Amino acid sequence: EAQVTQNPRYLITVTGKKLTVTCSQNMNHEYMSWYRQDPGLGLRQIYYSMNVEVTDKGDVPEGYKVSRKEKRNFPLILESPSPNQTSLYFCASSWGVGGEQYFGPGTRLTVT
Amino acid sequence: DQQVKQNSPSLSVQEGRISILNCDYTNSMFDYFLWYKKYPAEGPTFLISISSIKDKNEDGRFTVFLNKSAKHLSLHIVPSQPGDSAVYFCAAAPNTGNQFYFGTGTSLTVIP
């Protein structure tokens, strides 16, 4: 089944404790992206990747890192999480630019 | 500053009638426009898209209209069904197709 998977689905952590949210797709998609969803703000793009080893900042990249060492994986790294990063995070992938994106199920992160 | 706006947070429609969801954007460089549907506890799923060279695109019960001069996008659902009840997000991207901007979403309720 074609899908985007994210782990963990739920995470509660404390300020400053490094964490990684994994994202994997099995569709051989070139493009991958991370978003956060917050009430009243919709989805905002954090980082995107056009291909392996090619990543770029989205609208709200501060406090986040990403890497794209393999085509299928695009982990989101929070080196020192803060409470304002409490949010619902989505990973997405697509064949190429401008096209429909396939979204993962989301990761709800709470930073206390 | 929100580049894509959905000014109606919610909409209720009777089953069988037309649902019209609206979206406005500010950036004249946007070339790709997409609509996504989101159910609770799931990631968004792609619904329909349109490029800036067209003014209308149809897919079954769903039609998207683009008015470039007004920087306005709308999604028509005819006839509306209870299963259409969800949050709908519009999204836009420039011609590079790699950075996406989402609206804040409209929650559609179709009343049986």
List the topology elements:
The complex is a heterodimer of chains A (112) and B (112).
Chain A: E1 4-7, E2 10-13, E3 19-25, E4 31-38, E5 42-51, E6 54-57, E7 65-66, E8 76-78, E9 87-94, E10 102-103, E11 107-111
Parallel strand pairs in A: 2-11
Antiparallel strand pairs in A: 1-3, 3-8, 4-5, 4-9, 5-6, 7-8, 9-10, 9-11
Chain B: E1 4-5, E2 10-14, E3 19-25, E4 30-38, E5 45-51, E6 56-59, E7 62-67, E8 72-77, E9 86-94, E10 101-102, E11 106-111
Parallel strand pairs in B: 2-11
Antiparallel strand pairs in B: 1-3, 3-8, 4-5, 4-9, 6-7, 7-8, 9-10, 9-11
Describe this structure in words.
- The complex is a heterodimer of chains A (112) and B (112).
- Chain A has strands at 4-7, 10-13, 19-25, 31-38, 42-51, 54-57, 65-66, 76-78, 87-94, 102-103, 107-111.
- With 112 residues, chain A is mostly beta strands.
- In chain A, the strands form two sheets. In chain A, strands 2, 4, 5, 6, 9, 10 and 11 form a seven-stranded mixed β-sheet that branches. Chain A has a four-stranded antiparallel β-sheet with strand order 1-3-8-7, with no helix packed on it.
- In chain A, strand 9 (87-94) and strand 10 form a beta hairpin.
- The model of chain A has no long low-confidence stretch (mean pLDDT 95).
- Helices cover 0% and strands 56% of the residues of chain B.
- Chain B has strands at residues 4-5, 10-14, 19-25, 30-38, 45-51, 56-59, 62-67, 72-77, 86-94, 101-102, 106-111.
- In chain B, strands 2, 4, 5, 9, 10 and 11 form a six-stranded mixed β-sheet that branches.
- Chain B is globular and about 40 Å long.
- The model of chain B has no long low-confidence stretch (mean pLDDT 95).
- At the A-B interface, strand 4, strand 5 and strand 10 of A face strand 4, strand 5, strand 9 and strand 10 of B.
